[in-house]
Design a protein that fits this description.
alpha/beta
């Protein structure tokens, strides 16, 4: 329907000055959103880090992270590790179901002794961005591990939770995670297999860590990658929030290239080449944070390096109809059996 502007002006509905002001405001808003803000983002490493790591989003708001029982975690101790870069890291050790009610496990020494003589598999969990080790969906996964009678170690990277603030970068969080994994492997000392579980950003962290350790001929028994991406460049390009900018010709230069230049790359599709242990990728089709096809791309990169005739790299597709999205694969009813089977096969491969 055509609008007769002159008729509306003459009738007093709005003035030419008002129209001019509206047009001017729209142009300025457009230039700010699609011009100034992207340029600020391009040249600000601080903003890039904040957008990637989201460690300023503190949740949950209730509960005391130093008291795991306050968020419903039984058989759990809170403690701290000082890394080789002198960064204080907050850690939880969670007992398997069979040991939760053991009255002899009370002190830190008791917990250390249990871990040093572990009879059940041990899982090290590396979380995604935002929140901390006490965030709700993470607690659900710990409780699943616990019900499977596994030991669990989870921790917060620098700048998250109650871990010490330090230079937040890919190099930094990878260094923290590598230290914790090496500490755990030494603590367990071969008494039980150690598995690494990474979620979201934690998949990029864990894959990078295992690639570095492979250079030292050190590998855990297996690696689980939950809701992974292949690399940050593709994740930035495909993230739902990026779609409003993606059509602009400068998108890649302004948004994607700065991450690469500032070494915020998390190139799991390259690092997976050097991962020597078995890998299980889990991805939901309805993931609206990391698109499903990025997990597929990582899987294809893995089998291109390790071969199609091996089960070293496995992929589990989780149907969109289940509504598990990015965070709640822990509720997938088949997940316990998938984990048990993977753990059993990995143990068999290690003993062969």
């Amino acid at each position: 329907m055509c609008i007769d502007i002159d008729r509306h002006i003459s009738s007093g509905h709005f003035s030419r000055e008002y129209l001019f002001w509206m047009m001017k405001a729209s142009i300025i808003t457009y230039l700010i959103i699609f011009g100034l803000l992207p340029l600020i983002f391009h040249y600000s490493y601080t903003i890039q880090r904040k957008i990637l790591f989201l460690n300023f989003l503190k949740w949950p708001l209730s509960g005391d992270i130093t008291k795991p029982e306050s968020v419903g975690m039984k058989g759990t101790r809170n403690f701290y590790l000082n890394t080789d870069q002198n960064v204080k890291i907050g850690v939880w050790q969670i007992l398997p179901q069979s040991l939760i009610n053991d009255s002899t496990i009370v002190t830190d020494d008791d917990y250390d002794n249990v871990l040093s003589h572990a009879k059940q598999p041990v899982f090290l969990y590396m979380h995604g961005n935002s929140g901390n080790r006490a965030s709700g969906h993470r607690l659900e996964l710990y409780k699943l591990f616990q019900s499977l009678d596994y030991h669990i170690i989870c921790f917060d990277y620098r700048g998250y939770g109650d871990s010490e603030s330090a230079d937040l970068s890919e190099v930094g969080v990878v260094a923290d995670s590598k230290f914790v994994l090496e500490w755990l492997l030494k603590k367990v000392n071969g008494s039980s297999p150690v598995f690494v579980w990474g979620h979201s950003l934690g998949t990029g962290v864990s894959t990078h860590v295992l690639a570095l350790l492979a250079q030292e001929n050190i590998q855990p028994a297996g690696l689980f990658l939950e809701s992974p991406f292949n690399n940050i460049a593709d994740e930035l390009s495909e993230h739902p929030l990026a779609q409003i900018f993606k059509h602009l010709p400068w998108f890649h230069w302004v948004i994607v290239e700065p991450f690469y230049e500032n070494h915020l790359r998390f190139e799991s599709d390259k690092h997976i080449k050097n991962v020597q242990c078995s890998v299980m990728i889990l991805h939901a089709e309805d993931d609206n944070v990391i698109p499903f096809f990025l997990g597929e791309k990582l899987y294809k990169a893995g089998i291109s390096y390790h071969g199609n005739d091996t089960n070293q790299i496995q992929f589990t597709r989780i149907e969109a109809s289940l509504g598990l999205g990015h965070k709640y694969i822990c509720r997938y009813k088949e997940l316990p059996n998938i984990i048990r089977s993977f753990v059993a096969e990995a143990n068999k491969n290690q003993t062969d």
